Amino acid sequence: MIRELAKYWWLMVLRGVLAILFAVMAFVWPSITLSILVVFLGAYFLVDGIFSLAHGFRIRKTDTHWWVLVLEGLLGIVAGIVCLSMPGITLVFMVGLIALWSVVTGILEIILAVRLRKEIQHEWMLVVAGVFSIIFGVLLFMQPLAGVVVISWWLGIYALFFGIFLITVGARLKKFA
């Protein structure tokens, strides 16, 4: 496992750098960080829905399950419209989704650290990143309506520390490459 991870050590570093860039954005523009994410999510749902709908109609003569893509497309379009027309509801949902993602990511990072403990030194950094992710997710679950600015700052703090730890782990993995 360490060989495969080490081969692509730079991906871990890249993830860390992107996390730090996101943290800077969250600190510099806290009031618009989550709003931008909601707009991007809505736009993605809408565009994906349109493409799925078009794909479903294109294959309707050759595939008996074409309706699944059409249904998926319609749901995507509706989800996109909801995101773009009701950003408040979307934001609350998104905060819950971010919280869930953080907890699951944290658990997976800890599992990865345990699996790597005999192969690398300082795997505790991955454990710390995982614990930090879990704490962040639990805080978001406890305070979902704390305000866009506060949540944006929480995201920024999380992304900053997570990025630093990922860069550190990536640098350590580079030694095995």
From TrEMBL:
The chain crosses the membrane at residues 9-29, 35-54, 66-87, 93-112, 124-145, 151-171. GO terms for cellular component: plasma membrane. It comes from the Bacteria. Pfam families: DUF308. Keywords: Membrane, Transmembrane, Transmembrane helix. The keyword Cell division does not apply. This is Uncharacterized membrane protein HdeD, DUF308 family. It comes from Chitinophaga niabensis. The lineage of its organism: Bacteria, Pseudomonadati, Bacteroidota, Chitinophagia, Chitinophagales.
